Amino acid sequence: MTLNLDKSKWKHVTLGDIAAASKERVDPSDGSVERYVAGEHMDTDDLQIHRWGDVGKVDLGPAFHRRFRPGQVLYGSRRTYLRKVAVADFDGLCANTTFVVETKDEGALLQEFLPFIMTAEPFHAFAISESKGSVNPYVNWSDIERYEFDLPPTDEQKRIADLFWAVEHRRRALDDLAHRTRDAFEVVLRDIWSTGYLRPIGAIGECVTGSTPSKSNRAYWASEDVPFYTPSEIDGSDTIRPARQKVSHVGADAGRMLPPYSVAVACIGGDMGKSAVIQNPGISNQQITSIVGLSADDAYTLQAVLSHPLGRAGMEARETTTIVRKLNKSDLMKVEVPWPDDRTVLKTLVESNRRAASGVEAEGAGLVGLRSAILGEVFGGN
């Protein structure tokens, strides 16, 4: 895709030439705003604010006095490598470490074009390079207002911004569809749960707890032949991520090889209860217990019911807690999930949900790529 941009009339400017950080103050106690946005409410590379706090329910510190209004751009000036840029769609307040950025003159810079200037790779690279400090690096507005770039005329800003926002609105619609699909799936699974036909996991497949080949035996780690899975590869997807570590064939022989379509369950710490299907055979460490001996359909069906809130609750009810949370293999085997002899309906439901989720994920990834390509063509660096 190309925008066929004629940049001969673009004007070289600094961010401070055409935009400013608002200094409008508000007293959190005067009742004029109900919501506040802190750093944790803004997500990396996401222009939408999905979360916020209630001003009336917390004692905000003195730094929270900066007012923002719909359309203004919020920029997290701490840890700039987190790339937190968002566009407000409600009135609120934030700390003075979050810059509230707006155009100085709509005749020079359209407000709707500003967010994309500040999400382009060259801007992030500049902000990171200007950051001060090591533990909690930060930038001042006087630093980032020196950022230089080529600015299109306003009529071209409008054309580009319309395209950007069309992509952004479609991405948000996909996010909403994904949430509604997941919610509907959970409701249907809950209904299936209530019909009974519960069976303990130990009766569904063999449970195998992994082990870590000795690090002192170099032969075990001499070559990267076999995936070595850890809970960090179980990230919320139904399929486990590629293993970051691998062991030799000799090292794999020191553990228990997990065949394709084993269901890996993290059984310790903060990841406890997360699960994913293993597609490529490998071994796991002792923080994972896997259910093996399943068909592909059964593996994804079991992973789906274990990921359901009722499945997670069933595991949490059997966990032990001393210093860290832990679910022993013998306790995991006792967790009951819906598992009727005839699982045709259950499998069809899971497969339909997986296809829908995969389609949404693929289109979402395509939109992210499209947006990156557009930003690269307009501002370079992508």
From TrEMBL:
Keyword annotations of the record: DNA-binding, Restriction system
One Pfam family of this chain: Methylase_S
Residue span, Type I restriction modification DNA specificity domain: 8-164
Family per similarity comment: Belongs to the type-I restriction system S methylase family.
Classification via PANTHER family: TYPE I RESTRICTION ENZYME MJAVIII SPECIFICITY SUBUNIT, TYPE-1 RESTRICTION ENZYME ECOKI SPECIFICITY PROTEIN
Protein name: Type I restriction modification DNA specificity domain-containing protein
Native organism: Nocardioides aquaticus
